[in-house]
Batch of 2 targets.
Target 1
Amino acid sequence: MSPERKVRILIAKPGLDGHDRGAKIIARGFRDAGFEVIYTGLHQTPEQIVAAAIQEDVDAVGLSILSGAHGYIFPEVIQLLKEKGAEDILVFGGGIIPEEDIQQLYEVGVKTIFLPGETIQKAVEWVKKNVRPRG
Amino acid sequence: MFKEEKLKKVQEEKKKWIEDLSKILCETPERLSRFTTVSDLEIKGLYTPEDTQDTDYSRDIGFPGIYPFTRGIQSSMYRGRLWTMRMFSGLGGPEETNRRFHYLLDHGETGLSIAFHYPTLMGYDSDSPMSRGEIGKCGVAIDTLKDMEILFEGIPLDKVTTSMTINPPASILLAMYIVVAEKQGVGKKEIGGTIQNDMLKEFIAQKTFMLPPKPSIRIIVDTIEYCTKEVPRWNTISISGYHIREAGATAVQELAFTLADGIAYVEAAMGRGLNVDDFAPRLSFFFDSHIDFFEEIAKFRAARRMWSKIMRERFMAKNPRSWMLRFHTQTAGCSLTAQQPYNNVVRTAYEALAAVLGGTQSLHTNSLDETYAIPTEEAVTIALQTQQILAEETGVANTIDPLAGSYFVEALTHQMEEQAWEYIRKIDEMGGMVAAVERGYPQAEIADSAYKYQRQIDSGEKVLVGVNKYATDRSPITIWRMKSEIEERQLRRLREVKQMRNNEKVKELLHRIRMVSNNGENLMPHIIDAVREYATVQEICDVWRDVFGRYSDPGYF
């Protein structure tokens, strides 16, 4: 039996929003938890994020958004992943997202949203439970 | 001699106190093994004259309005004039923001402060693909002079001062402001206000960057040089610790990195051949007021003392105004919680009190709903009235620097100063802040502090009421939502402006900006000419991106 490879996660900062404190903390927290983490850096378009996800062969993409642009960014990233035949890459997110918008994001395929006040540990546990290395 | 005898007596009495205390602690130990500030600075249980024995009143504390300004920069402080109540505002399009400005001025606000939406902050127009989903969300959309004219309708620019939180395109927005004033019949020499214009802290923390560090600083120095001669009441730069702190820095890091940025700008302007006393009086600062009350007050006091020494001893400034650190304060956005938003009113009030006891010149108080969105009118009213209660009910503005002489506050002020000098020495050794930023030094220090703090929150070592302790159900609040027609209106107006203006002229003026960008002349007069003909923010920034290249995030984590 070959050992399962490590979970690979892309943490991405879409749009023009520069608030990267949360993205960097979660990237480091995931790395410390033993996942392989790639961080895109700031100001990425949905196209750039999807290209990075495919090129890096990740199992999940975590988007951090604090600018209010979540209603555009999440559906766009999920749509582009579909178009590239990579819909098995899970998409989750975190940031400042009003609770009444969350249901809509789940409907387009976002797996979970971490809101302010969540612990690193809780996000790590969610990944361990929900993200598997893709075939 | 007398002083030494007194100190000896204090030491003896302290010994006795410690003996008594040890007995008590055997039975009931202290609540915590370490008592620390929010920045994790360890605090002792008691401070006595022993902790300030090296403090010399005249040398280290002195009098307000007199070097080293520890007690404040004006000799009468708030007894002469209260701090400026300046609420950071921008929402949707210029129409909505103009209404908010009028509302705030009608309710006792004393200065304006513009929050721009992300595309403007980053040098894009509303019709750029980069602006998708962002129009009017985090601030006001400004693409051309037309928007700026609407923004200031009915607001006389000779009667109000305006602060603009804008960085890579700061020169462009200042140029628009100058032209709006000109159209009101108000000359450049009469207008007053501030552009943030501090790119170093953008690379370090806030991350609205566009060009690499060196050309960014060249454009900043152009604005300093131009305003020194032409717009003498304008604060050419607001050297900002706020964003450094919000990105996760400790109070000492905020203090040190901000002053190190200030040193870099002074060096750059002097490198252009400017006389330090001509431009230094118009440098201003901007700090965070976080939740740890005494740490913040000590930070503000240390900042004033340090900057005066830097200006006088390092840069040999002669004019006392060059030695003064004037600063704006914003209460800490990052201390607020999405859970139990009403608690944010309380946090903000304590933070505002610290800013006032620290001697701020102007203050923005955050609204309770700002962890979610731009504040509603109701929320912003509470935030503004928090300042008004502080100013006119609590009595804290009656006397100057009331905490001076507190053994604790003076010792903490001294301790923070010493630790900040240590950082500044380290940055000097790296070749200054530009070199330090290029190698990612402050960025890495901040990321480490942010991660450490999050771990302390996660473990419960640091408490956030309503989040990791005493958590209850979230109390829902109504938040501000942008109407979709605002986006359509903004795009339509931009299209119309581009059709109506003299496009040949705009092309020629943009070409001139390209030439001047290359030949090193001062850009400001040319930017003013271009915006007067309705050149857009992005058109000018595109020229710069083309000439100077782009800065992209190295993505440290």
Note: Residues 485-548 of chain B form one domain.
Target 2
Amino acid sequence: MPLRRLFAVSSVLFLLVLAISPAKNALRSYRSLQRQYRKLAASRAHSLKAAQGYAARPVAIQQIWLRDFDNRVDRCTTCHLGVADPLMAGAPRPFDLHPGTPHTPGGFDRFGCTACHGGQGLATTQIDAHGSSADAGPPMTPPVFIEAGCGRCHLSESVAGAPVLSRGRALIARAGCYACHAVRGQDEFRSEAPPLATLPLKTGGEWLKRWLKDPKSIDPNATMPNFHLTDQAIDELSHFLFAAQVPKDLAGRIEAAGAEPPGSPANGKKLVSESRCITCHTVEGKGKGSAPELSKIASTSSRGWLLAFLREPQAFNPRTRMPRYHFTETESRDVVAFLEDEFRDFDAPKGILEPLRVNQSLAENGRKLFRLYGCFSCHDPAGSGSEKFGPELDGIGDKRAQSLDFGRRTDLARTLPAWLAAKLESPRSFADGLKMPSYGFSADDSRAVITAVLALGAQSVPDRYRYAPPQKPALLPGGPVGSLIQSYRCLSCHLIGDRGTDVSTAALTYEGSKVKRDWLVDYLVLSYTIRPILEERMPVLKMPREDAMQLADALLNFYVDPSIPDDPFAGRPASDADSAEGQRLYVGLGCRGCHIVGSSGGYYGPPLTEAGRRLKPGWTYAWLKGPQRWRADVRCPDYGLSDTDALRLTAYLETLVPAASPAKSEKAARGVK
Amino acid sequence: MRFRTAAPALLVFLLLPGACARKPAPAAAKTPEAVKTPAAPPPVRYEVRLGKVTFTHYCQTCHGESGAGDGFNAFNLDPHPRDLSDPEFQKKKSDAEIADAIQRGGAGVGLSALMPPWGHTLSTRQIDELVLYLRTLPALRKPAS
């Protein structure tokens, strides 16, 4: 009897154990979700047939298999059933339609889900797929950082449709993160930090100590981060920096300049305002801020250094973005006299610019600190060898939270974004002896930077998924013209092909096909503001006329586009009737909404009062036929003009030449500002 | 007798799935949620965000940051740009009508030519996103001071 009972119990148990597996499968939550979806979709369907189609859908695991994308398999659509179904717009999660993006709903077959969202594509339970389970792989990217997904394939700094990612990448470049952290494709990166060789003749011990304490409190535009140094470390570093040998040539220039008689501040003031320093610098926070704040510059730098630097900035810092202004000796003295008069820190102690008397043993300790904190990464990259100072960042976006060292930060959520945010906010809080400085990013900036960092995957995506915008040729002439372009630092504001910076919005790539020579020479000699809306304005570089002519000829010969016709009228000059018709079009199309002609019009595009003197007709025509071809993000709308209409408008704009002498018209144009 | 055997078996049967189910990961629940993660902004639909980028780039100069028709170029324009955040205006116009006006411009829909046609510059998707963003403007409107 007991034996029989035991047999009965064990057989029942055996059957039960056998039943576990099918039971588990039958109870999987995706099954009930799929049944719910069938009902919901059928109730939303527009026709009986469609409703029946939905109702007849089998309950089964769905997947997207991307054979040429690392053999990815994404089963997300097992629960997210309506992502590609317009009928499910506004339905509750997980049945709702995916928002429209450049890759959805058209691109599910090509991109799947995890390529952008991260998470575990193979999993079929929510907790595993979303990665919230401890033993799953890296979790999904939180929606705030979703543009990190774009950055896996889109490698350029600026990515259309991904503003947060683009901003993050720009912030990283400006902060100079790549100087210490290796990242694929950034091997050429060099920090903009100045060389420190002339520092002993530039500033004083007191100023340097204040600077090292917290650079941003001295200059809000500073890119140098706060290293949280102790007073002793600051002292030792200062002694080391003041022990540097100033190169003889530069030392001679600084000393000679310091001994020159003072100039006229009144004239200096005039020169400073017409030189448009605030296109790059700020004065009490006003201006663009890509270069140092000027309002206390005379308490930062000695008079001799300022004067010698102003005369040839590139001799002091070969990588500076500052152009060389052709001030006369007297004019540069006047400029510095004005800076000394007005732009000083009136609260600073008297001896702020007193040089430091070097103590060799302190300086020796300072040398060690200079290496210890990796200062060389930015200030002397040549002396650092090929090894980067900080850990490489490639792959950080795929790190699992369990592999991160949270150290003392037990208060943090155990997630990668939280770890990164804390690393940016207070990098030293994780453990003792860490060296990463803090950058003072705002919460918004920090989110953008984290987005860009999360885009750094462990592996690069397959070639056919990688996207970088097509390279534009960027040839720079050598010889005398090349050195003129260098010395006036045209590329600090203008683009030529892919080289340079897009501050001015007017790339020089096709400049030779665009403007007429006489105008260009006059403009280079005495620049004015073409687009009054821009804060950044072409500085008056005091360019000698010979330089201007040489540059203009080079631009006109070199930077042309063969598809822009010299003569759009093809030998049949436009008649008066054509230009009258063009004027009618100008009014009818509403061009005056953005452009000024004469005394009226909008402030958005460049004034066209002297379009006929400035622009070549071939360019005007090519522009009118499709402005976005010449600048992808330009606001000037493409009106879809016919050839005839574009030619008529061109003919009209050709007639717009200043009636008075060129000198007067320049003044008139300058009055527009 | 038979019942006595079956009852525990049934109990085991009922308990088994529970015992086999995977334990929910406690990690996420236990840690204080996102102590130091930057405060997330309120979620905005992706299309709306793209629409805002387009608006800021192309429209803001005349229509103003909030769409009230007070962009800094507005004062050079006669007639002034439309107050797009006006709930009355929004009620009157259908999405298709707004998209049409963007596409064909003022002149295309019998209004001022100072509003240019964007149909050759922006894609239909961009225009649709723009309309979605415009629909959010009345809610963002500051109370009249």
Note: The two ends of chain B are 85 Å apart (CA to CA).
